[in-house]
Specification:
The chain is α+β, with helices and mostly antiparallel strands and 124 residues long. It is built from 4 helices and 3 strands, in the order αβαββαα. It has 2 domains: 74 residues, Rossmann fold, CATH 3.40.50.150; 37 residues, no CATH class. 43% of the residues lie in helices and 20% in strands. 6% of the residues are buried.
């Protein structure tokens, strides 16, 4: 794998935020010695399964294919569609608002957001 072990959780988190509900993430792992001059970091199918589970992805399928001197594992991961549609986006907005102004209650924050949305619609 091209991603160093300490950077993998962050990489998975970033990829998951790009997926829509029901979206697929396909990756191929090269198992075996790296090519001369190329830095590769070994990773197992099990480590990918743990990263997937930790980031809410389901492992749909893993296929192994031998090749000359190496083998390849292609994995299909899926972000379940739990009916929340835009929850990751809304979650990001809520967290941003809470970080900016954590002295208000959630009710006051949502009331203010609703007012701002209505105000923008009226101004248009």
């Amino acid at each position: 794998m091209h991603v160093r072990p300490p950077e993998r959780p962050r990489a998975f988190r970033k990829i998951v935020t790009l997926l829509t509900p029901g979206g697929l993430f396909l990756l191929t792992l090269r198992n075996g010695p790296s090519e001369p001059g190329r830095v590769m970091h070994p990773i197992s199918e099990g480590e990918i399964e743990v990263l997937a589970r930790d980031h809410g992805l389901a492992v749909m399928r893993a296929l192994q294919r031998p090749d000359a001197g190496v083998s390849w594992t292609t994995m299909c991961l899926r972000l379940p569609d739990d009916g929340t549609v835009g929850l990751p986006l809304i979650r990001g907005i809520i967290l941003a608002v809470l970080l900016v102004d954590n002295d208000h209650s959630l009710e006051a924050i949502f009331a203010g957001m609703e007012w701002k949305r209505l105000r923008v619609q009226q101004d248009q």
